[in-house]
């Protein structure tokens, strides 16, 4: 199964967040050194920080810990999301899809899928399963649509299940996600082995958020 990959959040600077995490790591380390200066090092066993190499090493370790916590959990807090403008789309979504005729644009096939979105602050993966195939995203971007919601755009690689007459192919999907993050609608098209296109309607399962 494909791993999660980086995604672009248009209008959001990850480097700025990284700088703030670096500042926080430095302040926390400086606070620990201050405790040493107040004679508390012996009581709480922080004397090793007084070593000239202690501060840089400690800042690096603290930064790593802060980044891990922020990337996995903290960014999902609602007040943080409001500040950053990044939606938490992780969870399972039920999808009703319609494949359209390439010439008349009329419905020719209706299908269902289970879409699972795995997301951290830095990475994402959109995994979709139908009765005939599985697909995984390979690149993605999210755009905030003011007053409406968000737009998730991603390209994917689709692999047929054993026994299916479908061919492996590449595709692109664009989903417009409502402001409440519970429903989405959009379109897709395939190429490189399967030339089809259609529409998708998604509903988020209740335990998805």
Question: Could you walk me through the main structural features you see in this protein, from its secondary elements to its overall organization?
Answer:
By secondary structure, the chain is α+β, with helices and mostly antiparallel strands. It has 2 domains: 8-84, no CATH class; 91-208, Lipocalin, CATH 2.40.128. Helix content is 26%, strand content 42%. The protein has 4 helices and 9 strands, in the order E-H-H-H-H-E-E-E-E-E-E-E-E. Strands 1, 2, 3, 4, 5, 6, 7, 8 and 9 form a 9-stranded mixed beta sheet that branches. Strand 2 (91-100) and strand 3 form a beta hairpin. The two termini are 23 Å apart. The model has no long low-confidence stretch (mean pLDDT 83).
Topology:
Blueprint: E1 5-9, H1 14-37, H2 41-44, H3 54-72, H4 78-84, E2 91-100, E3 107-119, E4 123-129, E5 133-145, E6 149-160, E7 169-178, E8 183-191, E9 197-204
Parallel strand pairs: 1-5
Antiparallel strand pairs: 1-4, 2-3, 2-9, 3-4, 4-5, 5-6, 6-7, 7-8, 8-9
Count every helix, treating DSSP H or I runs of 4 or more residues as helices.
4
Distance between the termini: 23 Å
CATH architecture of the largest domain: Beta Barrel
Number of domains: 2
Strand content: 35-45%
* CATH top level class name of the largest domain: Mainly Beta
Tell me the number of strands. 9
What is the typical, i.e. mean, pLDDT? 83
Radius of gyration over all CA atoms, rounded: 23 Å
Task: Tell me about the largest β-sheet.
Answer: 9 strands, mixed
Fraction of residues in H or I helices: 25-40%
Could you say what the CATH topology of the largest domain is called?
Lipocalin
- The shape, in one word, is elongated
Helix-strand makeup class: alpha+beta
Element string (H = helix, E = strand): EHHHHEEEEEEEE
Low-pLDDT segments: none
């Amino acid at each position: 199964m494909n791993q999660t990959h980086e995604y672009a959040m248009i209008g959001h600077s990850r480097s700025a967040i990284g700088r703030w995490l670096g500042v926080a790591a430095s302040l926390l380390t400086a606070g620990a050194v201050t405790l040493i200066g107040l004679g508390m090092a012996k009581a709480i066993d922080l004397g090793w920080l007084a070593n000239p190499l202690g501060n840089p090493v400690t800042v690096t370790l603290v930064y790593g810990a802060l980044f891990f916590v922020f990337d996995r959990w903290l960014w999902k807090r609602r007040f943080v999301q409001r500040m950053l403008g990044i939606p938490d789309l992780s969870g399972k979504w039920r999808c009703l899809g319609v494949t359209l005729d390439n010439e008349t644009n009329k419905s020719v096939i209706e299908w269902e899928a289970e879409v699972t979105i795995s997301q951290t602050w830095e990475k994402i993966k959109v995994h979709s399963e139908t009765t005939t195939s599985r697909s995984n995203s390979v690149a993605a971007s999210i755009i905030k649509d003011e007053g409406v919601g968000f737009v998730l755009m991603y390209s994917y690689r689709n692999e047929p299940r054993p026994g299916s007459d479908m061919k492996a192919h590449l595709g692109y999907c664009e989903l417009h996600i409502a402001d409440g993050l519970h429903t989405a609608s959009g379109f897709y098209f395939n190429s490189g082995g399967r030339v089809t296109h259609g529409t998708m309607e998604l509903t988020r399962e209740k335990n998805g958020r």
